[in-house]
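re: the backbone from monday

yeah here it is again, tokenized this time
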């Protein structure tokens, strides 16, 4: 692991984030950024920010962005916000607004 970046309590459902993460797993850092820029899914905005942060962290350590690839990317379940909406016969139906914890780790490509 050369560099990492993490964001917690993102107001996105983890399965939806994992769907987008599968597209960039084990890809080069710059290729992953270009894939995310051309994608039409809501989690892309947060993933681009996290990826840019991880690349910036690697640059501070003296590594070039062309040398890096995404070695590990995970999305864990965060706490859910509990809300209620009105239901029939005076009852209340629960709503769970799910959150995510996203973590990206970058590493050097093999042979460099």
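seq for it, each position gets an aa:
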């Amino acid at each position: 692991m050369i560099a990492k970046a993490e964001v917690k309590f993102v107001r996105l459902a983890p399965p939806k984030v994992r769907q987008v993460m599968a597209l960039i797993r084990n890809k080069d850092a710059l290729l992953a950024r270009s894939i995310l820029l051309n994608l039409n899914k809501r989690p892309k905005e947060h993933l681009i920010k996290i990826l840019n942060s991880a690349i910036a962290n690697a640059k501070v350590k003296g590594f070039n962005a062309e040398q890096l690839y995404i070695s590990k990317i995970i999305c864990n379940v965060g706490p859910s916000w509990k809300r209620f909406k009105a239901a029939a016969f005076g009852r209340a139906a629960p709503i769970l607004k799910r959150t995510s914890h996203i973590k990206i780790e970058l590493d050097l490509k093999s042979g460099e």
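The radius of gyration is 17 Å. Strands lie at 3-10, 68-77, 81-86, 92-97, 100-108.
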